[in-house]
Design a protein that fits this description.
Helix 4 packs parallel to helix 10 and helix 13 (291-301) crosses helix 19. The protein has three domains: 70-230, Substrate Binding Domain Of Dnak, Chain:A, Domain 2; 242-390, Rossmann fold (3-Layer(aba) Sandwich), CATH 3.40.50.2030; 404-628, 3-Layer(aba) Sandwich (Rossmann fold). 49% of the residues lie in helices and 11% in strands. It has a six-stranded parallel sheet with strand order 6-5-4-7-8-9. A six-stranded parallel sheet has the order 13-12-11-14-15-16, sandwiched between helices. The protein is of the alpha/beta class.
Length: 633
């Protein structure tokens, strides 16, 4: 199997082979064959009487030591994955809440409030009277409301109530899955899946849905506060892939997920070009991005993104990556081993995310600018230790547009109808120019040729006039593969979709259409797409499960993808997964996820490894919903 479609990644993998450097692909091969019990979810180590396993062929044990059958075992494992994903996204958001709180109390002096308008709009939506109040007072009240989302509440989650349709709220209350606190939902899921507690697979999965709604709220808080503190993204021209690395610059990559670190590094780097030049780098400091924090700085600062989750080790092999500064999530320990073969300085910054062999600089908001300078200076010192014989930068670089926040999409549509911005989108869905909308999210995995599923599905859906939105590693994939520009829209979009994109593009002053894939941000920004769907549903007076909107994680890998997919289903979206999660050991759980969920929530999972079949299944779901709305074309 080819490891990656990315030509830059292919070049670096060749370097790795020549130098006998082991990457994630080699480590995966060393694991084969992987545990068949684990792949199907029929392995349990939740108590010390295990690990227990169940024979899927019926020839060995059919229950664990405690008596749990396959359905219970699989449901418990799924529930714990959802809890882990929710803890990760909501933990990211909690960090931002504390940053805003520190700003209010003058403990984060290096951070501005970049979008006062969004702060006041959010306050209004949450029921905070902001009129005639100074910004710090409004920020303090919003931060307090956000902190309350984590505790055990006596009333339903405020963020959830304000950002879903009335129909969803009524359904969640009816099904007993309404959220009453993010942290409490995670704790409850860990409790109910421990030894001797919940033993009904359907009940466990309903608890998982409740927990996943905590993921949705956490992600929404994360996006809202990132926009307030760092600025709501606006459409910006940017570059992607490893060709953006510079031989004559100090190259520093920001890696991870939280812009609290990466945003200030990107800003401070501009002040340190003279220090870099004095060290022998005439082009100064070149900040690049990896993974989702790369998406954050790409859409706010135009910083080029050079790699995503599965290929994060490969930029080190160019020989010009002077430092990689990481916060948390999706950071491979293997980078530390590879960096030892080069001059690259791997720097960790968060107390919960240290790596053996890396240099740790504890990052604090109170001294953010000084921390950023210290980090950049380590990169400058590493630059002096480069080995010219190891320099090998792939000449692969693409151009594109990023930063399609919800506000930017509404603004773009407003160019066609200022008084009613959603009307052009709805009209073109009705007339069939846009058959539907698909959100691409998720990661990359070594189990699939990197980018293959994304690229194949995107082209299949686009030719059928489906508008595509992308976040996280999906957005990074499309950036690196050159899909975020007018040329790609002209080549791959169907005639109806292309006509709409061209009309908006010309109104925006472009020489051609908008991209047929709109880059909406990092993986925490999936709620941007949900906000668009909620707004359209409310305008039409229907629930989300009636809209021709679908979701896909073609190459997912983390537990975060499991929690995202679960709330997408709970919102009412047909949701495709290209890597089947460890649930196949329980036909009952599979039925709940693919059939029962559809009957109850309208959304359901579509497990399908083949990307062409997956695209056809999603388009079929779109056509089914169009028919349900009385749209025949």
């Amino acid at each position: 199997m080819q490891k990656s479609m990315d030509k830059a990644a292919q070049a670096m993998l060749q370097v790795a082979e020549e130098q006998n450097i082991k990457t994630v692909w080699d480590r995966y091969q060393a694991q084969l064959p992987q545990c068949g019990f684990g792949e199907t979810g029929l392995c349990c180590r939740h108590c010390l009487q295990g690990p227990c396993r169940i024979d899927p062929f019926g020839e060995g044990p059919q229950v664990g030591t405690c008596g749990a059958n396959a359905d219970v075992m699989v449901a418990r494992g799924l529930g714990r994955a959802i809890a882990a994903g929710t803890a990760s996204h909501s933990g990211h958001a909690k960090h931002l809440v504390h940053t805003l709180h520190k700003w209010v109390h003058h403990e984060a002096p290096d951070y501005p409030i970049e979008d006062e308008g969004k702060l006041r709009a959010l306050a209004n939506r949450l029921g905070v009277s902001e009129k005639d109040k100074p910004v710090p007072q409004v920020a303090a009240e919003v931060a307090e409301l956000a902190l309350q989302e984590y505790s055990e509440r006596l009333t339903p989650s405020l963020w959830l109530e304000k950002f879903i349709t009335p129909g969803r709220k009524a359904l969640y209350e009816k099904m007993g899955v309404m959220l009453y606190g993010i942290d409490s939902s995670v704790a409850e899921m860990m409790h109910r899946t421990t030894y001797g507690v919940d033993q009904d697979p359907l009940n466990i999965i309903l608890g998982g849905i409740k927990c996943a709604l905590g993921d949705y709220v956490g992600m929404h808080i994360g996006t809202d506060l990132s926009d307030i503190i760092f600025g709501t993204p606006k459409v910006t021209a940017t570059r992607a892939n490893m060709g953006a690395l510079k031989k004559d610059a100090v190259n520093i990559a920001v890696h991870g997920h939280n812009p609290v670190l990466s945003d200030i590094v990107a800003r401070v780097a501009k002040e340190m070009n003279d220090e870099a030049r004095a060290a022998g780098a005439p082009a100064g400091v070149n900040i690049v991005g990896i993974c989702c924090t790369g998406n954050e700085v790409m859409m706010r600062h135009g910083v080029p993104l050079v790699a995503n989750a599965v290929s994060q080790e490969l930029p080190i092999l160019t020989g010009v990556m002077d430092a990689i500064v990481a916060d948390y999530q999706c950071i491979m320990p293997g980078m530390a081993d590879i960096s030892e073969s080069f001059h690259t300085k791997l720097i960790t910054t968060m107390s919960i995310a240290k790596t053996t062999k890396a240099t740790h600089i504890q990052f604090e908001e109170s001294t953010a600018k000084e921390s950023a300078k210290q980090i950049i200076r380590l990169g400058i010192e590493a630059f002096k230790k480069r080995d010219p014989a190891k320099i090998n930068i792939p000449k692969v670089e693409t151009q594109g547009l990023a930063g399609f926040s919800t506000e930017q999409i509404v603004a773009a549509l407003g160019l066609l109808n200022k008084e009613d911005p959603l009307k052009p989108l709805i009209d073109n869905i009705v007339n069939g120019n846009i058959q539907g909308v698909a959100l691409f999210a998720g990661c990359n995995t070594v189990k699939i040729t990197q980018d293959y599923n994304y690229m194949t599905m995107a082209k299949e859906l686009a030719k059928n006039n489906v508008l595509l939105l992308a976040t996280g590693c999906a957005a990074a994939c499309f950036a690196r593969e050159g899909m975020l520009n007018s040329d790609a829209a002209n080549e791959y979009a169907g005639p109806g979709l292309k006509a709409v994109l061209t009309a908006v593009g010309k109104a925006a002053g472009l020489n051609g259409p908008l991209p047929f894939i709109l880059h909406m941000g990092s993986c925490v920004d999936n709620t941007r797409a949900a906000d668009v769907a909620v707004a359209v549903a409310n305008k039409l007076g229907v629930d989300i499960d009636k809209l021709p909107v679908v979701a896909s994680a073609p190459e997912e890998v983390t537990e975060k993808a499991v929690s995202i997919g679960t709330w997408a289903v709970a919102l009412g979206l047909p949701t495709h997964v290209g890597v089947v999660p460890p649930v196949t050991g329980s036909p009952a759980v599979v039925k709940i996820l693919t059939e029962t969920a559809k009957a109850v929530f309208g959304g359901y999972f579509i497990p399908e490894p083949d990307p062409v079949k997956a695209a056809n299944a999603l388009f079929g779901a779109i056509k089914e919903r169009r028919k349900g709305l009385g749209l025949s074309n």
